[in-house]
Specification:
The protein has 231 residues and is of the alpha/beta class. It is built from eight helices and eleven strands. It has one domain: 3-Layer(aba) Sandwich (Rossmann fold), CATH 3.40.50.880. 45% of the residues are buried. It comes from Bradyrhizobium rifense.
């Protein structure tokens, strides 16, 4: 606790990592939460902080990002089912394709979807960045709900969720419990939005300023043209 101030509880953010995850999907999202501070405190202030972040892999072993560094997860899937979490995020990247390849890895895919369902029953907010939406869609969690995904991989992801109300324009979509973003850098914008939703707009604005990040606050305003994914 910083000084004599009493702050809201620290919320715990879980992020799934797997071989071939897209680095910015994870690290851009992480930065929004890791740089956040309670109002009246500075970046250099000691804990408590608004958020604690945990990386989660299937077996807890190191995984290599797509064309990038490896990471050492904090938890495996089993421990994640025992620990309190407020939010779970599934990133995208080339690794999502083998992750959902039921022809080559039927047992692994079945186990992944079962774990996602178990986590969904325990967590108040489920999110995805980029093609991570394919996992939520394949699990049936997005059926009947609006959702976003990577514009370049739109058709591939949409194939896993024919009942999903896919949005081919927005940077991210808030469907209540389920919040999904378009590709790569859109996940960072969604991250700051989620900070705002979970800890207040002032905390998110201070975090964006501390990160010197040009936060695109309006999910309906594409930053590249043509404006939408090819459908």
């Amino acid at each position: 606790m910083a000084g004599n101030k009493v702050f809201p509880r620290t919320q715990r953010i879980g992020i799934v990592v797997f071989d071939g995850f897209e680095p910015i999907d994870v690290w851009g999202f992480v930065e929004a939460f890791s740089i956040s501070r309670f109002l009246g405190t500075s970046y250099d202030a000691p804990p408590a902080y608004p958020f604690e972040i945990k990386l989660i892999s299937r077996d807890g072993k190191n995984v290599k990002s797509s064309n990038g560094p490896s990471v050492a997860p904090d938890w495996d899937f089993a421990r994640a089912l025992k620990e309190p979490l407020d939010l779970l995020m599934i990133p995208g990247g080339e690794g999502t394709r083998p992750l959902l390849d039921e022809k080559k890895h039927p047992k692994e895919v079945k186990a992944l979807l079962a774990w996602v369902h178990e986590m969904d029953a325990r967590i108040s907010t489920m999110t995805s960045v980029c093609t991570g939406a394919a996992v939520l869609a394949r699990a049936g969690l997005l059926d009947g709900r609006p959702a976003a995904t990577n514009h370049s991989a739109f058709s591939w992801v949409a194939g896993y969720g024919p009942k999903v109300l896919w949005d081919s324009v927005s940077r991210w979509v808030d469907a209540g419990k389920y919040v999904t973003s378009a590709g790569v850098s859109a996940g960072t914008d969604m991250g700051f939005y989620l900070v705002s939703r979970l800890a207040g707009r002032a905390v998110a604005e201070n975090a964006a300023t501390a990160a010197e990040y040009d936060w695109h606050r309006d999910p309906q305003a594409p930053i590249f043209y043509p404006q939408q994914a090819a459908t």
